[in-house]
């Protein structure tokens, strides 16, 4: 009883890869949400600095700063939600499988051609 071996759950490679992809995706979304919260707080902070503390009040510079930051946030959003769908892990996997399949087909075709040439050369030698 003291020396019983513990049974461990084994996760197959596909499930492990799916789990890793899900964890990476969660981290991406979490960073995006943090970026959004910091963007909101930072925008309010920039407005307060410009309007309430009257730093550079002759010009509304906070508008340009918030616009630039919003553009960076839009790029981040695009990379997480739009670009990931088109060129994410699933896309990489299908592309890899497609290339491997093409290579196998070309190797099989080459093997056929070599066997055909070998048979033809054997037939020529026997004649």
Automatic annotation (TrEMBL):
The reply to whether Transmembrane helix figures as a keyword in the UniProt entry is yes
The entry's keywords: Membrane, Transmembrane, Transmembrane helix
Taxonomically, the superkingdom here is: Bacteria
Instruction: Spell out the Pfam families in the cross-references.
Output: 2TM (PF13239)
Bilayer-crossing residues are: 32-49, 61-82
Where does the 2TM domain lie? 20-100
| The protein, known as | 2TM domain-containing protein
Q: Which organism is it from?
A: Sinomicrobium oceani
């Amino acid at each position: 009883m003291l020396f019983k071996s513990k049974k461990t759950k084994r996760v197959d490679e596909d499930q492990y890869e799916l789990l890793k992809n899900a964890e990476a995706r969660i981290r991406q979304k979490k960073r995006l949400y943090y970026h959004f919260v910091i963007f909101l707080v930072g925008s309010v902070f920039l407005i307060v600095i410009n309007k309430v503390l009257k730093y550079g009040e002759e010009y509304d510079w906070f508008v340009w700063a918030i616009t630039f930051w919003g553009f960076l946030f839009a790029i981040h959003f695009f990379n997480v939600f739009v670009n990931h769908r088109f060129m994410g892990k699933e896309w990489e996997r299908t592309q890899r499988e497609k290339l491997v399949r093409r290579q196998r087909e070309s190797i099989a075709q080459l093997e056929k051609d070599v066997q055909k040439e070998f048979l033809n050369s054997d037939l020529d030698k026997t004649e």
